Amino acid sequence: MEMQEEDFPALYNSADSTSLKAQNHYFSALICYLFLLILAAFVSYAWLTSVYGAITSAALFLITLGILVWLKVHKPEDIWYNGRAVAESVKTRTWRWIMRSEPYDDNIPEEQAQKELLNDLKGILDQNRSLSHVLEWTPNLGEAISEKMKVIRSLPWSERLETYVRDRVDNQSMWYSEKSQLNRRLAKRWFIVSIVLHSVAVLLLLYRIKEPASSLPIEVIATAAGAVLTWVQAKKYNELNSSYALAAHEIVLIKGESVFVKNEQQLSEFVVNSEAAFSREHTQWTARKIV
């Protein structure tokens, strides 16, 4: 019995979709902003004495100003972070429910367990009312409690443990591992780009000393180098690499504890401790405002 993304509560799917859209909007706006800054610097260099060049540069800077205003007013970065926080909170509650872990264990009737989960989901939504204007709901997002969730919850503890290790622990381990490696590669790539741009700027400055009358695009290169630095700071490649690698190692240790689970009570404790570890990493991620 495999737990798919669409099997999670509708609130999770809506928050996840909203977060991803806001993230794409934020970085798309940032890319446009940085590209237009470099383009404006190039236009100023290429048509230094041209009126049309000055007008074009001014227009480009006005567009970049508009992008900054849009980012300030619509705040896609906040929507991205808050949406991710809601999605992860719902996912944690969902796994604890389908694994019959506290507070949704066998000590309460099944109907009461469903009510407790629904109340917790309402609480998560109430704490994030700022997302109410962007959260969408369509029939394909699913129900508050899916049939797959109910089926897995009804399985014997050994089968639920197998599902949890495969679909939750292993899934998280693979995600963090892949993200760590990706951010390591991108950090190296952008570091090389930054070194090349700075080296070119230094060479051009040295050449200008030799030929003071020469016209060189030093300002354009400097703007490009600054744009690369801004992009790297926004993406936080090195920090994410370290954070995700540490999380991946911690999850491997978590998986090792699964072999000691021998009954329903131990499964509940294992899931509670595992979800606490996942939530701790996510809380740190939210506090640093990175992804």
Q: Tell me the number of strands.
A: 0
Count of structural domains? 2
Structural class: mainly alpha
Spatial separation of the terminal alpha carbons: 30 Å
Strand content: under 5%
- Element-by-element helix/strand order: HHHHHHHHH
Global shape: elongated
Which stretches of 5+ consecutive residues score pLDDT under 50? none
Question: Total number of helical segments?
Answer: 9
Average predicted confidence as pLDDT: 89
Radius of gyration: 25 Å
Transmembrane segments: 26-45, 51-71, 190-209, 215-232
Pfam families: SLATT_1, SLATT_3
Organism: Thiohalobacter thiocyanaticus
Keywords: Membrane, Transmembrane, Transmembrane helix
Describe this structure as you would to a colleague.
- With 291 residues, the protein is mainly α.
- The protein folds into two domains: 1-98 and 111-154, no CATH class; 156-291, no CATH class.
- It is 78% helix and 0% strand.
- It has nine helices and no strands.
- Helix 1 (10-46) packs antiparallel against helix 7 and helix 6 packs parallel to helix 9 (264-288).
- The chain starts with 9 loop residues before the first helix and ends with a helix.
- The mean pLDDT is 89.
- InterPro entries: SLATT_1 (IPR040884), SLATT_3 (IPR041116).
- Keywords: Membrane, Transmembrane, Transmembrane helix.
- Residues 9-160, 164-285 form the SMODS and SLOG-associating 2TM effector domain.
- It comes from Thiohalobacter thiocyanaticus.
- It holds the Pfam family SLATT_3.
